[in-house]
Each structure stands twice: as C-alpha cells, then as structure tokens.
Amino acid sequence: MTLTEARHRLEYAIVMTVRALAGGLPGPLSRAMGTTIGWAFYFVDGGHRRLAHAQLTEAFPTRSRRECRRIAQQTFVHFGRMVVAVLRASTQSHGEFLRHIEVEGEERVRAALAGGKGAIIYVGHFGFWELHGLVHGLVVPPLAVLARPLDNHRLEAMLERVRTSTGNTVIYRQGAIRKVLRVLEANGAVAIPIDQHIQGTNAVRVDFFDRQASTTSAVAMLALRTGAPLIGAFALPLPGGRFRMIYEHPVELPPAGSPDPVRELSQRCSDVLEMYVRRHPHLWLWMHRRWRDMPSGATEEVRDMFPAPAPEESEAPE
After folding, report:
1. Which of 117, 279, 290, 308 is most exposed, with minimal Cβ within 10 Å?
2. What are the φ/ψ torsions at residue 170 (nearest 5 degrees)?
3. How confident is the model at residue 185 (pLDDT cuts 50, 70, 90)?
4. CA angle 85, 196, 307 (to 5 degrees)
C-alpha cells in the first residue's frame, strides 16, 4: 500500500466516523461537533488561515484587521458545521431532513422549466450549498451538478452517493459542455459554480470586491446559446439548526448589441454572489485563493499570499 492510499483510507475512516457520530447525536451536539472541527482546522491549517486573513483584509479595506480575523474564524467554524450538516443529512430520511428546511423562490425554477429551455443554477461556495443541492432534488425536478472529483477516490465515491441520493446527477468536468447541453435540451436544470479561478480561453474577467477575478465563461455562454434562464441559489443557516434555501430572480440578459455580452452576463451573476457575501461574509470560502494576481498596494504579508501562479490546466469545462 502506498503512502497516498494509506492517507486516503485514514481520511475516509475519519469522515465516516464523523458521519456516524453526526447521525447519532442530537442536533445541538452535532452542530457543536462541527464548531469544534472548524476551530481545530483554524488553528492547525496555518496556510489557509493566513490566506483567509489576507483576502478578507483586501476585500474589506475599511474593516480592522481584528474584525477580518474574527470573520476568518467564523468562516472556519461555518465550514466545520457545513461538513457535519451534510454528513448528518446523509443519515436521515428525506422527510426528517426536510423538516429543518425552508425554501424560498422555488416557483422561479418551475417557471424557468416551464419555458422549455432548461435552467442554469449558478452557485458559489457559499453557505450550505451542498445541502441546497440535496433539497433541490426533493422540492423541484432534480438537477445535474457540475463538479470536480476529489483526489481521494473513496471520499469522492461517498460524496457522489450523497449528491445523487435525492435524484440529482453529477457531471464531471471532462467533456462537460456537451453533457450540460444535453441536460438543457431535455429541459433539465444544471448547477454550475462561478467563484473558482479559471485560466485559458474559457475564462472571463469580472469585478469581484472591486478587484478583477478570473471566472468561468461557460455560464453566460450557455445561457446566451440556449436561452436557459440563469437563477442564483443560496443556502443560509437559521437559528435552531434550520436552513433557508433561496432561489433568486433570473438574471436579466444583456441588451441586443452589447459589446461583450458574455462578460456582462458573467458580471451580473458575480454581482449577485458578491451581494450575498457582503451580507454574510463568514459564509464564503475565504480560504480558497480566489484572486491569483497580487493586489496593488499590498503589504508584504499579503504579497506572500499571492505568488505568481504557475502554469496550470484550465478549470473550465471542456
């Protein structure tokens, strides 16, 4: 057994242990476990902790460093709770799971599908996005989720079982565009993340927190090509271990004659995501290096967080 395989087995064993505990504990204790996991990663994972501090400082220049550090701490806690919430949901019946869910705006998805051209659900690594996917398959027709496989094949297989447990399907990035088009042609819905760094010809530059960020052009190009409405999906936590799943109004398409409709439509989607992140900054993945260029006027500490990116494969769907 290789060292990598041994590490993958250990990771899988730890996750399955957390899953068993999350499913057996009362809700408050399950959330407390998520909080503990989040704090543990905050103290242990120095690289991602410093990156979160740096990006928050750049995104919110009027906030103090102390406040940005507090938001970073809350972010780690949130993602610990999210992981536990997803694992806990995977042990529950659909009825038990839905008792903790409020859904707002699902009629917008139904109206979009009534148009016969499918629907594109744009999402970010914000809030409880994995839970939202599970809910979608139970309250409106299931969707296809565009995803990137995890390095750990055991955890990837487990995550795929969870994602498909409510009727959804998973589309991996290799050859994804053709598969997405088939879903839309069949009047289905597809979920695509818009907050990951993309390189290559499939990238488009948008303003995100007053800085240029490279993102996928696939969302806008698919909407312009197929006429499928673009609907943002966001999942917020509520008191008492409940969640609100929100479907936003469809994004208005650029007017005819727009000089760059792909960038304009991509920007409109990014603006909606930014609105949610500004309202709830601790619910977004600040430990992901969203901006690969070094900010102008950055301090030495921040500069260390933004080294020149090495050549890499495009993250956009092929």
Report:
1. 308
2. -115, 130
3. very high
4. 115
Ordered alpha helix ranges (H), 106-146: 106-114, 129-139
Mean pLDDT of 207-236: 96
For residue 153, give the H/E element and its range. Answer: helix 153-163
Confidence of residue 175 (pLDDT cuts 50, 70, 90): confident
- Phi first, then psi, for residue 122 (nearest 5°) are -90, 140
pLDDT at 138 over 80: yes
> Is 25:97 a contact under the CB 8 Å cutoff?
no
Q: Which helix (DSSP H) or strand (DSSP E) does residue 104 occupy? A: strand 101-104
State whether residue 212 is helix, strand or coil.
Answer: strand
- Which one, of 50, 47, 53, lies nearest residue 70 by Cα? 53
Task: State the pLDDT at residue 256.
Answer: 83
Distance CA 201, CA 209 (A): 23
d(CA 190, CA 188): 7
pLDDT band at 293 (very low <50, low <70, confident <90, very high): low
Listed in sequence order, the residues at least 6 apart from 196 whose beta carbon sits closer than 8 Å to its beta carbon are 125, 215, 216, 288, 290, 315
Q: Which residue has the tokens 């103290």?
A: 43
Q: Facing residues of 206 across strands?
A: 213
pLDDT score recorded for residue 257 = 85
> pLDDT per residue over 69-109, tens digit each?
999 999 999 999 999 999 999 999 999 999 999 999 999 99
Classified as helix, coil or strand, 26 is: coil
| Paired residues of 212 in beta bridges | 207
Q: What are the residues facing 97 on neighbouring strands?
A: none
Mean pLDDT of 218-223: 95
Task: Give the three-class secondary structure for 215.
Answer: strand
Cα–Cα distance measured from residue 265 to residue 129, given in angstroms and rounded to the nearest whole number: 22
Hey, what are 192's tokens? 């695509």
